[in-house]
Input
Amino acid sequence: MIDNKYDMILDAASQVFAREGFHKAKISKIAEIAGIGAGTIYLYFKNKEAILEEIFLRSWSRIESKLLAMKKIKNMTPLQKIAEITGEIIELIFSNVSVAKILLYEYSFWNSNKKEKLSKTVENSQKLIEELISDGIKANIFRKDMNPKDATMFIIGGVWFWIASKSDDLLSYSKEELTDTLFHYIVYGLK
Amino acid sequence: MIDNKYDMILDAASQVFAREGFHKAKISKIAEIAGIGAGTIYLYFKNKEAILEEIFLRSWSRIESKLLAMKKIKNMTPLQKIAEITGEIIELIFSNVSVAKILLYEYSFWNSNKKEKLSKTVENSQKLIEELISDGIKANIFRKDMNPKDATMFIIGGVWFWIASKSDDLLSYSKEELTDTLFHYIVYGLK
DNA sequence: TATGTTAATGAATTATGGTTCAGTGTTCAT
DNA sequence: ATGAACACTGAACCATAATTCATTAACATA
Output
């Protein structure tokens, strides 16, 4: 059980943002779900945007850490690493489905908002995926006629939308099953 | 040259929505760019949302038409059809980059908003893509271990993000080049 | 030209909901 | 038990910008 207000607010906000979208989400509703007064939120967050920012940051940090860990491991093929990271994404979703929806729907937020810390984390993660793909190309595992950055964006988008389309009934599948499915789309496309 | 107010408003709104995002876009700015009074907009559209809705509808209708046309053609492989549709998407972007950006950034709008006509068109398009993939599986051109709906969402997401990552310098590539690149990601993934 | 009809305007109105803050409750050391 | 320090509250405030509408312009008809 969440026992501190900061996390309670984040959790309530995740639910409301996921259901209503950031702009239609009301602070009063978030407060209600968190079981606190509306004003209390402002003791923990500068404003509504800051809540969203923190949600993004936490999720992306998790992905970034995993990518960083993979980078350090030497005796693993790019394919194995991708499988690992795919697993981490599925884990993230299982830990909070609402957050997965927000990451998708408010894509424009982290994309356009030039919040230092957040965009650094996102950019870093993208770079790390790019490197991973580059390695795969060099190792002759992936196609040569590929721009790593394009591929990265294509993959991120694919993963996101796929998650969103499942969203609610995502939890009725096993983690292993989902990880496997996702991995195949990333690596093999339609063929 | 656009000669009627309705289209002038749509065009101005596309620019402003693309630059500011739907929520930050001001009706007064749209009116200014269209060269008309703010109140005039309300003679042509019920409200701000209705403008966005119409922009979405026009774009998706175009994709839907293409998909419908492809469905009717018999002597074409699923692969060839996918290549055609990919080309149509690139055409759509080239015809109006602002609109492409809006489609991406305001994804949450058409997804959450249950506007009858719009969601019908979008759903229809998704179904048509699913069928196309099903055909490909039956014809042994695509992997058998694939759920067409999953694949569809993965592809749409991939295309979206890939477009977004390029967005502004998209026009510096040739249509053929872009179509080709996109087609390869869809069909072959990383391998 | 006079008159009716329709289109357009933009200042004023209004709805919304994020944010503030004066007041209330809680905690805890003395 | 007291009161200082801090946490919390939610009604009131306020900024923003969508929408309205009384007024004016443009145009058509006779």
Notes: Residues 5, 28, 31, 36-40, 43 of chain B lie near DNA strand C (CB under 10 Å from a C1'). Chain B has two domains: 1-45, 55-188.
